[in-house]
TrEMBL record, chain A:
SUPFAM superfamilies: PLP-dependent transferases (SSF53383). The gene is gcvPB. This is glycine dehydrogenase (aminomethyl-transferring). Residues 380-479 form the Glycine dehydrogenase C-terminal domain. It catalyses: N(6)-[(R)-lipoyl]-L-lysyl-[glycine-cleavage complex H protein] + glycine + H(+) = N(6)-[(R)-S(8)-aminomethyldihydrolipoyl]-L-lysyl-[glycine-cleavage complex H protein] + CO2. Its EC number is 1.4.4.2. GO terms for cellular component: cytosol; glycine cleavage complex. The glycine cleavage system catalyzes the degradation of glycine. The P protein binds the alpha-amino group of glycine through its pyridoxal phosphate cofactor; CO(2) is released and the remaining methylamine moiety is then transferred to the lipoamide cofactor of the H protein. The lineage of its organism: Bacteria, Pseudomonadati, Pseudomonadota, Alphaproteobacteria, Rhodobacterales. Residues 1-23, 492-525 are annotated as: Disordered. Pfam families: Aminotran_5 (PF00266), GcvP2_C (PF21478). GO terms for biological process: glycine decarboxylation via glycine cleavage system.
Automatic annotation (TrEMBL), chain B:
The glycine cleavage system is composed of four proteins: P, T, L and H. In this organism, the P 'protein' is a heterodimer of two subunits. It catalyses: N(6)-[(R)-lipoyl]-L-lysyl-[glycine-cleavage complex H protein] + glycine + H(+) = N(6)-[(R)-S(8)-aminomethyldihydrolipoyl]-L-lysyl-[glycine-cleavage complex H protein] + CO2. Gene3D superfamilies: Aspartate Aminotransferase, domain 1 (3.90.1150.10), Type I PLP-dependent aspartate aminotransferase-like (Major domain) (3.40.640.10). GO terms for molecular function: glycine dehydrogenase (decarboxylating) activity. The glycine cleavage system catalyzes the degradation of glycine. The P protein binds the alpha-amino group of glycine through its pyridoxal phosphate cofactor; CO(2) is released and the remaining methylamine moiety is then transferred to the lipoamide cofactor of the H protein. This is Probable glycine dehydrogenase (decarboxylating) subunit 1. NCBIfam families: PRK00451.1. InterPro entries: GcvPA, GDC-P_N, GDC_P, PyrdxlP-dep_Trfase, PyrdxlP-dep_Trfase_major, PyrdxlP-dep_Trfase_small. PANTHER family: GLYCINE CLEAVAGE SYSTEM P-PROTEIN, GLYCINE DEHYDROGENASE (DECARBOXYLATING). Pfam families: GDC-P (PF02347). Its EC number is 1.4.4.2.
Length: 525, 448
């Protein structure tokens, strides 16, 4: 990858001179073009879809036909293409540059995967057409299941959960079902370390568990002694992210698992950070009973501006029987898609979604896995970890790492102690990164350190890209320490928008476009 | 490996800079006895051509909807999607961006979500809509949980016309959350006495229209009875295109409207990813699940958009959140909103009218087959067909003749003899006179 560094000297003071004073007639700035709302440019009488006149029939709608207009605007195709292309240019994306959002694993999304997902045999098949007409679709799910089981060393995989949090729900329901089968419904407590994603406590609470925190050591890891103190006959499970959200592998995980199992509870692992350990450790060997896998993180299915995700859940032998339906099972060469819990499968926890899950994501994930192979997957994890450590090594003299010199996994956590006395915050650093052309790292998460900055470069970055990022981050830290406050407080200056007023958005919620008064009156006529 | 930019020399240099003796030194926190030394027992890396060959072979084993006369619905529908939709959603800046947590560089995503929310509110006749759920079925589960929060009651009544898979999703969630769910028996003709189920402990009544058997339901009396008892009416749809021709649930008194948006802009893809639509009244927004995008201004006073009311959400509220949901269905929302912008009022109406007309023509054609009866009186684009024989076998034989003729009800409701001769048959704008003639002829042969 070659980068144009023209005009971007690392320390020259003129680099952040502002030329915002020049006004333009349109409000546009060359390639950056403002775009009005669909409702301001579309017209109800316009359509971008040509269909023949519908056949003339006597309608059979009873008395249910719509009488009032909807007032939906339409666009001709050139208008629609321009509207969405312009909007797209107001977004940052991985294809633009490094997207070091910690715990989100923003890696390259191979285009082969998009092509494969659009093959008619995958993209244009219905979930309820006869199974005899979709053997290849079932085969694909089965093959992906085999890879996930082998990579995790677990017993079974429930494919249908639609996203990470949905997978958590699946795993925790399986645990609850297993406890009920044992007649131990009194186990109500779920231990959740303070560093956990918010979805963990939210999921546990959703199905009636009571969440109890487990404090972290100074470096963010969990002390098995603290777990031992809290386990007892009332504890159902622990939910542990490993590697954790501080970017560290929980080195006492085996001991923690043993403490949990000895007390009769289950070990739920949040697989958000699986990308660090593929081919390096099997979670089955760590004592995990259930773990969701974010196919949109580790296995590169596109994040798409916030979804769709996919969250298959691998299960241990102790929980496999409780897997939801539908379920793809493989017995030797025979593969079957079980849609209902019949006969011997009475333990199944039930159904979590209407159909078979996120097939479009399965195709992309398998395409990614086949491309990498066992060797490439392990190499990807190693490169992800190496890239994060390289950033750590190159920034730790200027930024403050709570874990000190200790190597990290695939992401490096800094806190804001290096900013002390500057008046500049973690948020200001993030906004200044935007002006430098980067997407910021994850900020203020995990909650266990002050002003967290969590940087996850992934394996997709070249060394040149990392060096460029590091140079900019060093420059920012030095500028902050030198008291160049304006560069931070006024940032971002070059983004499509300056800082947005989030308080106003929450206090006076405006969640949809409303016709201005004269138009509203017209529409009502 | 074509996706990994580091060279062996890079790795060596970088390890030196890090001060690690080997890559394994960076993994030293993994206890030695569980560290994996062997490669996983899986194939090695492959080039694009080989991957295409493997996946192409699997895909080739399936019968795609476009290749045959196709009448399968029951919650997912084959519509024509304009070519520009799939092109636009693959713009890098949409496809490879994240949740818009840094709004200054995510205005593209935020603006289309705001437009999406407005379109969904208009279509459903409601005041506000969220930025989508995983799909219609999980959205229905969330709607019931929301009704419990609003009414502070925990008893939901589900109509027998609700899609059985949706019912199962709600029941699963209800069972684990400790709520009471009363599901009415399968109601093929829309005759159930749901009003009799509503009392002062009911949190919500969940009614689908068009229902899974195709019936268009009169929602007004249910809304009135529910409201008289302090309960909410949750309405469900699985065919979003119906909203172009059928009276909106909002106009009939619904409090929460939830449905599957796949029909507009999104391919069938064997069941997912899809996009759940979720709308409600303004007074309930703080009890709503899922992401919301709102309008605001930036530091220069320019209009802009942000994710808002996040104090409802898990990343702030943790175990007190309204839902554990963390993602929406971003790219599927985008496909929905682009397709609907292209359709506009005029195109939506015409598409919906064509779907309905084609379904009427299909019903007429199939009723000509001896022994076959259409059970549904008022419908949009799907109806229940009664055949003299086992419906699952009939569908299988039709498939052998190259017609995908619908969904046997027994696939959704197994072990119910009284439903075993029923087929759900759907038609959309894609179907032609030839398709209908082929279906009728094949059905006649299969039943002969």
């Amino acid at each position: 990858m070659s980068m144009n560094r023209e005009g971007r000297g690392a320390t020259a003071p003129e680099i952040h001179e502002v030329h915002q004073d020049h006004k333009t007639f349109t409000g546009n700035r060359a390639l950056r073009i403002e775009e009005a709302l669909l409702f301001e440019i579309g017209r109800p009488e316009v359509t971008g879809v040509d269909l023949p006149e519908p056949p003339k029939v006597a309608k059979r709608l009873g008395r249910h036909e719509r009488k009032a207009p909807i007032n939906l605007p339409g666009l001709a195709e050139p208008e629609a293409v321009r509207h969405y292309v312009r909007l797209s240019r107001h977004n940052y994306s991985i294809d633009n540059g490094i997207f070091p959002l910690g715990s989100c694993t923003m890696k390259h999304n191979p285009r082969l995967n998009e092509k494969m997902a659009r093959l008619p045999g995958f993209g244009d098949v219905h979930p309820l057409q006869p199974q005899s007409t979709v053997p290849g679709a079932i085969e694909l799910i089965s093959e992906l299941s085999r890879w996930l089981i082998e990579l995790t060393g677990m017993q079974a995989v429930a494919m249908s959960p639609k996203a990470g949090a949905h997978g958590e729900l699946c795993g925790m329901m399986a645990i609850k079902a297993a406890l009920e089968a044992r007649g131990e419904e009194h186990r109500k407590v779920v231990l959740v370390p303070d560093s956990a994603h918010g979805t963990n406590p939210a999921t546990a609470a959703l199905i009636g568990f009571e969440v109890k925190p487990v404090p972290a050591r100074a470096d963010g890891t969990v002390d098995p002694e603290e777990v031992r103190k809290r386990v007892g006959p009332d504890v159902a499970a622990i939910m542990l992210t490993n590697p954790n959200t501080c970017g560290l592998f929980e080195r006492d995980v085996v001991e923690i698992a043993k403490a949990i199992h000895d007390a009769g509870a289950y070990f739920y692992a949040d697989g958000a950070n699986f990308n660090a350990i593929v081919g390096k450790a099997k979670v089955g060997d760590l004592g995990v009973d259930a773990m969701h896998i974010n196919l949109h993180k580790t296995f590169s299915t596109p994040h798409g501006g916030g979804g769709p995700g996919a969250g298959p859940v691998v299960l241990s032998e102790r929980l496999a029987a409780y897997a939801p339906r539908p379920l793809v099972v493989s017995d030797g060469g025979n593969v079957a898609l079980l849609e209902h819990a019949e006969g011997g499968a009475a333990e199944s926890l039930g159904r979590m979604t209407a159909f078979h899950g996120q097939m479009g994501m399965y195709v992309r994930a398998l395409s990614y896995m086949l491309s990498h192979g066992a060797d490439g997957l392990r190499q990807a994890s190693e490169d992800a970890v190496l890239n994060a450590n390289y950033i750590r090594a190159c920034l730790q003299d200027l930024y403050s790492a709570p874990a000190g010199d200790r190597p990290c996994m695939h992401e490096i956590l800094f806190d804001d102690s290096f900013l002390e006395g500057t008046g500049i915050t973690t948020l200001d650093i993030a906004k200044a990164m935007i002006d430098e052309g980067f997407h910021p790292m994850t900020v203020y998460f995990p909650l266990v350190v002050h002003g967290a900055m969590l940087i996850e470069p992934t394996e997709s970055e070249s060394r040149a890209s990392l060096d460029f990022f590091i140079a900019a981050m060093r420059d920012l830290a030095m500028a902050a320490k030198a008291g160049d406050t304006a560069r931070f407080k006024e940032a971002p200056r070059y983004a499509p928008r300056r800082r947005l007023d989030e308080t106003r958005a929450a206090r006076q919620p405006k969640l949809r476009w409303q016709a201005p008064e004269p138009m509203a009156a017209e529409a009502a006529e | 490996m074509r996706y990994l930019p580091l060279t062996p020399d890079d790795r060596t240099d970088m390890l030196r800079r890090v001060g690690a003796s080997s890559i394994d030194a960076l993994f030293a926190d993994i206890p030695a006895k569980v560290r994996q030394t062997e490669l996983p027992d899986l194939p090695r890396a492959k080039g694009e051509m080989e991957v295409e060959r493997i996946l192409g072979r699997m895909a080739g084993r399936n019968v795609s909807a476009s290749s045959v006369p196709f009448f399968v619905g029951a919650g997912a529908y084959k519509h024509h999607v304009p070519a520009s939709v799939d092109h636009l959603i693959q713009r890098s800046e949409f496809l490879t961006s994240y949740t818009p947590y840094q709004p200054e560089i995510a205005q593209g995503t935020l603006q289309y979500l705001y437009e999406f929310q407005t379109q969904v509110a208009l279509l459903t006749g409601m005041e506000v809509a969220n930025a989508s759920m995983y799909d219609g079925s999980t959205g229905t589960g969330e709607a019931v949980l929301m009704a419990h929060r609003v009414t502070k009651r925990r008893k939901a009544v589900l109509s027998g016309g609700l899609h059985p898979h949706y019912r199962d999703v709600v029941e699963t969630l209800g069972r684990f959350a400790g709520d009471s769910i009363k599901a009415m028996p399968a109601d093929v003709r829309g005759e159930e006495d749901i009003l009799g189920q509503i009392d002062d402990e009911t949190s919500c009544v969940v009614v689908q229209s068009p229902d899974v058997y195709g019936n268009l339901r009169d929602l007004r009396p249910i809304a009135e009875k529910a409201h008289a008892h302090g309960a909410l009416l949750v309405t469900v749809f699985t065919e979003a295109m119906s909203l172009g021709l059928v009276e909106s649930p909002g106009a009939q008194g619904a409090d929460i409207v939830v449905g599957e948006g796949q029909s507009i802009g999104n391919p069938l893809t064997f069941g997912g990813p899809y996009v759940g639509l979720f709308a409600t009244r303004e007074k309930f927004i703080r009890q709503m699940p899922g992401r919301l995008c709102g309008e605001t201004v930036d530091a220069e006073g320019k209009r802009g958009y942000v994710l808002t009311l996040s104090t409802r959400e898990q990343h702030i509220r943790r175990d007190k959140a309204t839902s554990n949901i963390c993602t929406n269905s971003g790219l599927c929302c985008l496909a929905f909103t682009i397709h609907l912008s292209l359709l506009g009022e005029k195109g939506l109406r015409r598409t919906a009218e064509t779907c309905h007309a084609n379904a009427v023509l299909l019903a007429d054609a199939l009723e000509q087959v001896p022994g076959v009866e259409v059970l549904t009186e008022a419908f949009f684009n799907e109806f229940t067909l009664k055949v003299p024989g086992n419906a699952a076998e009939v569908i299988e034989k039709l498939a052998e003749k190259g017609v995908l003729g619908g969904v046997p009800v027994s696939r959704l409701e197994p072990g119910r003899p009284e439903l075993e001769n029923l087929i759900l048959v759907a038609s959309t704008e894609i179907n032609t006179d030839d398709d209908r003639a082929a279906y009728a002829a094949a059905l006649k042969e299969v039943l002969a």
